[in-house]
Amino acid sequence: MAFVQALPSAPTKNVIAICKDDLVNPVPEVPVQLDLQASTSTKRCTVRWGQHHLTDFKNYIFFDFYVFLYLTVKQIHKEVKHLTNYALRSETIPCSKLESSFATIPGEYYNAYIEVRNAKQKVVALGSTRFRASYSKDELLMLYSMAKQYSGTKMREIDEVYRCKPQKYWQGIKDNHNGIMKPYMKDENGHGANHINSVLKGLFFSAQLNMDGTKRTTSYFGDRKYSVTPQELFNPNVVNFYFCDFYCNANNHTNHFVTIGVCKKKSKSDKFCSDHLIPLPSSNPFFKVSPGKNRVYSLNQKVSVELFYTENVRLQMDRLKVIKPVGRGSSRPGGLDNNKTCKLCNFVI
């Protein structure tokens, strides 16, 4: 399981010190703030606290452990996310147990609140943490293995990567953002347990070609196509690559996607991805960069590769080309639900 350190809202103190102080000194007027850690996975999460040698105090200190589940309700056609808060679990166990585990739903948010009480039920310490039931490293490695098995080895050379958006999107960047495409928050598209959803900011680029190798002339996302050379954004001396997700959408289970995070080395986004995702070599099964001065970029042809670039990009209006919009002609606010019944890209069914 992957451990996430909670951010304390007040100075912290370990539980051993609290127990010793309470046995010989008056109970503190203000409860001490605890650090909590949450280990996450898609099926089961664990909250941990304190040290591993509290058995001497198990008859003196008890705590109440409450877990509150936040349910995310997606409203179609609205960019609003409603959260419903209700009590999921409440129990009283010895402080010496050091942890409590509980079943979780992939992608849901949870709040855990802990009180440490003495024998007189006086609260001497408390803490809280918020976390999401996200992939553990082992689970993400399993998903990566499934993606490799599905994708195969057929690659095709590319000479551009692109974004398709409505004309008003590009005009807004020119008029309101000094011609800078700024990363924005990743939506909920893909697996709910994906670590980057609603956490990491970036810009999606595609390099997908038609089956015969020709460039696409239609887009589901807008009537203007902006293209750059892959060398401009994906120089392996400048950026790192990370495996993020492998999924298909509920409305189209035949088309599978692999999401690759692309981060400037030693940036904040690079640190986040290094901690939570799977590093990829520059030559990986989905997006290959050949070594040497004159690099050749190639893309897997069986899976749709999404390149999530986490840095600003300078807009050059003369690079915009008209492309025929199909379907909605724009992305769906909030993203699409993934297909939770597909056995090719789910191990939690």
UniProtKB/TrEMBL annotation:
Domain Phytanoyl-CoA hydroxylase-interacting protein-like C-terminal stretches: 133-347
Gene Ontology cellular component list: cytoplasm
Lineage top rank: taxon: Eukaryota
Protein name per its UniProtKB record: PHYHIP_C domain-containing protein
Organism: Panagrellus redivivus (Microworm)
